[in-house]
Amino acid sequence: MTLDQLDKGRISRVTGFAAGHEDLVTKLREIGFAESDEVELMHRGPLGANPLCFRLNRTLIALRSDEARAIHVDAAL
Amino acid sequence: MSRLRIALVGAPNSGKSTLFNGLTGGRAKVANYSGVTVETRTGWLQTPGGTGIDLIDLPGIYGLKPRSTDERIAIDLLRNGRDGKAPPDGMLVLIDAAHLRTHLHTVLQMRAIGRPMIVVLNMIDLAERDGLKIDIERLRTELGVPVVTARATRAAGRADLLACIDAETANWHKRDDTADSTTEPVELDLSALQREARAIASKAILFEPTMNRLTRQIDHFVLHPIIGPIILSALLFFMFQAVYSWSGPFMDALEAGAAGLGQLAGQLLPAGWFHDLIVDGIIAGVGSVVVFLPQIVILFLFILALEASGYMARAAVLMDELMLRVGLNGRAFIPLLSSFACAIPGMMSARTIDNERDRLTTIMVAPLMTCSARLPVYTLIIAAFIPPDSVGPFNLQGIVMFGLYLTGVVSAVTVAFVLKRTVTKGSNQVLIMELPTYKLPNPRDFFYSLWGHIRAFLKRAGTIILTTSIILWFLASYPSSATTLRESFAGQLGSILEKLLAPIGFNLEISIALVPGMAAREVAVGALGTVYAIQGGEENVDGLAAALQSAWSLPTALAFLAWYVFAPQCFATLATARRETNSWAWTGFMFAYLMVLAYVAAGATFWTATWLGL
Question: Which of A26, A31, A36 to mutate: most B Cβ within 10 Å?
Answer without folding.
Answer: A31
